[in-house]
């Protein structure tokens, strides 16, 4: 039984873990990496071809991980998909009972690397998911058995020191996200400043924050 994430605000912490599917045609190694987290993590955050490297389909992996009793947050980027592909992917997510999606623009490919699509950026995807939650595709086609989508966006604590970044981040939040996933930050003073920023904008009373932690 998965924990009911992002429903009511409380003092309880939510613990998630990130995983990247393998370069493989079998699910075995991808599932083995997370089986130790059953009953420990509240959800698994599944990446979408990070660093522009092809991986086993994150949606396929997400569906199987959910069967293990773990909740899932699926990352979807606009780098590799146009609007049609994103809408199809999201409907597939909902058909599998996956309703939590982290909306990302995606890592930028190198100049001599694969060509990016980038029809939609992270803000555009958030807006698209709201439209789909309301029961329609972007061309106003009605979605049968439409379901609510819990969307999230990413944040970089370090980048809040850059001019204009905080305003850009708040613009994404104001599109209606439910949660924020931060990248790693190993500077405790910056983390304290970030906490003050969250409180000063009353974000701690509006949305959830999943703060990225990892070993040095």
From TrEMBL:
Keywords: FAD, Flavoprotein, Oxidoreductase. Pathway: One-carbon metabolism; tetrahydrofolate interconversion. It holds the Pfam family MTHFR. GO terms for molecular function: methylenetetrahydrofolate reductase [NAD(P)H] activity. GO terms for biological process: methionine metabolic process; tetrahydrofolate interconversion. InterPro entries: FAD-linked_oxidoreductase-like, Mehydrof_redctse-like. SUPFAM superfamilies: FAD-linked oxidoreductase (SSF51730). Its cofactor is FAD. PANTHER family: 5,10-METHYLENETETRAHYDROFOLATE REDUCTASE, METHYLENE-TETRAHYDROFOLATE REDUCTASE C-TERMINAL DOMAIN-CONTAINING PROTEIN. This is Uncharacterized protein. It comes from marine metagenome. The lineage of its organism: unclassified sequences, metagenomes, ecological metagenomes.
């Amino acid at each position: 039984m998965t924990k009911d994430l992002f429903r009511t605000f409380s003092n309880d912490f939510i613990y998630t873990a990130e995983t990247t599917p393998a370069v493989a045609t079998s699910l075995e190694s991808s599932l083995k990496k997370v089986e130790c987290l059953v009953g420990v993590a509240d959800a698994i955050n599944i990446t979408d071809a990070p660093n522009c490297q092809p991986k086993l389909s994150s949606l396929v992996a997400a569906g199987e991980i959910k069967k293990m009793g773990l909740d899932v947050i699926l990352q979807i980027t606009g780098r590799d998909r146009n609007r049609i592909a994103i809408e199809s992917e999201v409907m597939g997510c909902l058909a599998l009972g996956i309703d939590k999606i982290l909306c990302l623009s995606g890592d930028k490919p190198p100049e001599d690397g694969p060509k990016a699509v980038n029809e939609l950026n992270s803000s555009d995807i958030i807006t698209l998911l709201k439209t789909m939650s309301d029961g329609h595709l972007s061309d106003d086609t009605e979605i049968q058995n439409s379901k609510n989508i819990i969307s999230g966006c990413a944040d970089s604590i370090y980048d809040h020191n850059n001019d204009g970044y905080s305003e850009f981040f708040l613009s994404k939040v104001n599109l209606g996200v439910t949660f924020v996933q931060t990248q790693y930050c190993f500077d405790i003073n910056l983390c304290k400043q970030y906490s003050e920023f969250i409180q000063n904008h009353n974000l701690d009373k509006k949305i959830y924050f999943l703060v990225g932690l990892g070993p040095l």
